[in-house]
Amino acid sequence: MRNDDESGFVSRTIPAPDGLRLHARDYGGESSSSSLSPIVCLPGLTRNSRDFHDLALLLSRDPVKPRRVITLDARGRGLSAWDDDKSHYNLAVEAQDVLATCATLNISKAVFIGTSRGGLVLHLLAASHPDILKAVILNDIGPVLEKEGLGNIRDYLNRDRRPADWNEAVEILRENHGDAFTALTADDWRDMAQAIYTYRDGKIIADFDPAIAAQMKSLDLEAPLPDLWPQFESFQKIPLMVIRGENSKLLTTASIEEMARRHPGMRVKIAVGQGHAPILHLGDIPAAIRHFLATI
Question: Which residues have CB under 8 Å from 210's CB, separation 6+?
Fold first, then answer.
């Protein structure tokens, strides 16, 4: 069951390079070990810092090696401001926002966890600013995006069904993702709803600028998709772990195998009974993350 979502962290406001207001949660702070690199978590396309809340509590309150954990609301998501210039919702701008966040919070090097789009941002940072990456965990993302997975995302964003209450929010998520997330309990589905939706102006709404979804809705899947293999090569000297949802349609086993061939030290964890993208505080995933962190 989700912990109290409003405790265990300090809210930080960070100015982006263009002045837009960004929001992040800062877990641990002074109680964490200063000898350990902090962890910075980057969410997916329409997701926000709340996705990482329970994992951040586990890592920041570790009885042996507590770490500072930063979970970021990318621009247009969560408590970060919406951008008037919708063209700024792109990977290059969001990568600069990550660098600005780290600079403001005095983080010169960190372990980064990137879920889906957050992992794509990390591909760009690996190519442009590898020195900031102590280690990387890619959550159900790699240099190749499968059209089936992108189509699934586009389709459920196109449905745009708005819940009347929290029970209906859970029902919508089950309809969209139930086949892929067989491991989730009733409490897990409610936790997911509370991470994705927010209560605003008397209504339950998805917690992101609708312009972000509009970009995805207009995606042409008949056109060839570019890959990020050149950027992925930049991870070669960086400790790397990849988590794949067992039922993911966005990251295939074939892609994982090719990633491992190009990065022989890469660790792989399969999230059993989960799809895109795995919920990181469930099952044995936290133990796998802790084991990876112990090696760097």
Answer: none
The number of folded domains in the chain is 1
Least confident window among 154-163, 207-216, 264-273: 154-163
| Residue 74 forms part of a structural domain | yes
* Token pair 């919708």: residue: 86
CA dihedral 161, 165, 167, 169 (to 10 degrees): 30
Say which residues have a Cβ less than 8 Å from residue 15's Cβ, sequence separation at least 6: 21, 22, 100, 104
pLDDT by residue (tens digit) across 139-176? 999 999 999 999 999 888 888 788 999 999 999 999 99
CATH label of the domain that carries residue 71: 3.40.50.1820
Write the CB contacts of 64 (distance below 8 Å, at least 6 apart in sequence).
none
State the residue for tokens 């090569």. 233
DSSP state of 132: G
pTM of this structure:
0.96
Query: How many residues in total does the chain contain?
Result: 296
